[in-house]
Amino acid sequence: MSSFKTLTEMLKNNTKNFGNKIAFKVKKQNEFEPITYNELYEKIKELGTGFLEIGIKEFDHVGLVSENRLEWIISDMAVIHLRAADVPCSGNSSSKDLYFKLNHSDASSVILEGEKQFNSFLQINNPLPKITNIILIDKIDVFSKSDEVPEWANPVDFQENGKIRKSFEKAIKNL
Question: Residue 48, SS3?
Answer without folding.
Answer: helix
